């Protein structure tokens, strides 16, 4: 059981999801501005 590797993978996924959400929000907000 490699909990450290699992934690790193979940952290990476969370970072990618956060970046994707930020990109979508910027894409929606820029035309509104």
Shape: rod-shaped
Spans of at least 5 consecutive residues with low confidence: none
Structural class: mainly alpha
The helicity comes to: over 70%
The chain-level mean pLDDT equals 85
- Output the helix-strand order: H
Q: Give the count of helical stretches.
A: 1
C-alpha-based Rg, rounded: 14 Å
Strand count, sense and barrel status of the largest sheet are: none
| Number of domain units | 1
What's the number of extended β-strand segments?
0
Distance between the termini: 49 Å
Provide the β-strand percentage band. under 5%
Summary?
This protein has 33 residues and is an all-alpha fold.
Protein described:
It contains one helix and no strands. The termini are far apart. The mean pLDDT is 85. Helix content is 91%, strand content 0%. It is mainly α. It has one domain.
């Amino acid at each position: 059981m490699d909990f450290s590797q699992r934690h790193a993978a979940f952290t990476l996924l969370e970072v990618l999801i956060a970046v994707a959400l930020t990109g979508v929000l910027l894409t929606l907000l820029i035309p509104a501005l």
